[in-house]
Amino acid sequence: xxxxxxxxxxxxxxxxxxxxxxxxxxxxxxxxxxxxxxxxxxxxxxxxxxxxxxxxxxxxxxxxxxxxxxxxxxxxxxxxxxxxxxxxxxxxxxxxxxxxxxxxxxxxxxxxxxxxxxxxxxxxxxxxxxxxxxxxxxxxxxxxxxxxxxxxxxxxxxxxxxxxxxxxxxxxxxxxxxxxxxxxxxxxxxxxxxxxxxxxxxxxxxxxxxxxxxxxxxxxxxxxxxxxxxxxxxxxxxxxxxxxxxxxxxxxxxxxxxxxxxxxxxxxxxxxxxxxxxxxxxxxxxxxxxxxxxxxxxxxxxxxxxxxxxxxxxxxxxxxxxxxxxxxxxxxxxxxxxxxxxxxxxxxxxxxxxxxxxxxxxxxxxxxxxxxxxxxxxxxxxxxxxxxxxxxxxxxxxxxxxxxxxxxxxxxxxxxxxxxxxxxxxxxxxxxxxxxxxxxxxxxxxxxxxxxxxxxxxxxxxxxxxxxxxxxxxxx
Length: 476
Description:
It catalyses: (S)-malate + a quinone = a quinol + oxaloacetate. GO terms for molecular function: (S)-2-hydroxyglutarate dehydrogenase activity; L-malate dehydrogenase (quinone) activity. Pathway: Carbohydrate metabolism; tricarboxylic acid cycle; oxaloacetate from (S)-malate (quinone route): step 1/1. Keywords: FAD, Flavoprotein, Oxidoreductase, Tricarboxylic acid cycle. By secondary structure, this protein is α+β, with helices and mostly antiparallel strands. The chain has one domain (2-187, 221-471). It has 15 helices and 20 strands. The chain has helices at residues 2-12, 62-83, 106-119, 134-140, 142-145, 167-180, 230-237, 260-264, 317-320, 327-336, 338-348, 352-359, 420-431, 436-446, 458-471, and strands at 19-21, 94-96, 99-104, 129-131, 154-159, 163-165, 184-186, 189-196, 202-208, 214-219, 222-224, 246-257, 269-271, 285-291, 294-304, 372-375, 379-386, 390-394, 397-401, 407-412. Strands 3, 4, 5, 12, 13, 14, 15, 16, 17 and 18 form a ten-stranded mixed beta sheet that branches. The chain has a three-stranded antiparallel beta sheet with strand order 8-9-10. Strands 11-20-19 form a three-stranded mixed beta sheet, sandwiched between helices. The chain is globular and about 70 Å long.
């Protein structure tokens, strides 16, 4: 998020001075790191939680279309930066990887079939395929079918135009380009204080990790893109808009294999239904990952628990977030989500063997010895005030902005990085309303569909998909 916003501002207002503070020794070592997230280019091609079935059995594709529209803006932005030489060869951060959904049981098969019938009519989902035939699914993803029980109802959808994204590599390249063009990118530097001054600027107090040397700068605008720690820094800013917010940290683990025989047989990201009580970010999936040119497979995520808001956070994070304004909303969330608590406990009780047993629902032939456990990143699920329910647990991402637009921060989790471009475009409109009109020509140059929708214009959707696929070398 921070790298995306910095890149935009550098293009839109090249005379502005930009400073970036990172508390670790390098950028992209937390949530953006390749092994701390699934790397899915979230476009709602395979994620069932973006299109739930209504109580009356209907299916509304609006949310899925919205997520896809946002990802298309990301693709266009990255394509422009590749053309301009800001980003390296596309294969260093994005690769074509079909997106699939695989379900079992008559109820879920009926659900997936209905979802397919709705989505196949939408221009941004052109090319989606559906099958209940084991021979067809075996061609798409052989590991799903090998040793599967005969007579079991199952179905799958497949979209060849899906992607796997190394958000760590993307983030590093964006920050490197920013630094090359004059931005002050400081690592090993932790922001400790945010104070609004009488003239409307912010005093940003920081401390260097080496020697613990303190310092400060003045800024007219501050963006807090600190992952789980964004809440803590926004609380220190004392803006009233952060009152009532809290976060619940959820960690994760993957099963990972580099076995070349297995990797060669599976090139897809395959999602399924979430377990009862599980948050959407814990939907099980078996994924191709390409990191530093090396392909491997991940399965998960499996939830873990730590009171830290970041992998490199503090054991006191979950306690020190408590304020008079957020304690009631957080208690209400705890009372209203016993299924989530039950799910987390069940996940914590799973050993390596039990986790491979879960994998066998996807891959019946899985062997314990082929898979190792890998720790994923920490996710901070948003808890906030609600006028009707006192407090609610919110999934997805949310930007919290000060009343005058001089400070903003990002809370939440998936789809996160995939939709960073769209989220930062929204932030620009909110925080710089007096400049957005003059910026629009350059924004349209970077993102041709800016200010319009693609799904409502089939020809435009087809053109954008084809053009970005060519620029980013996305050919399955």
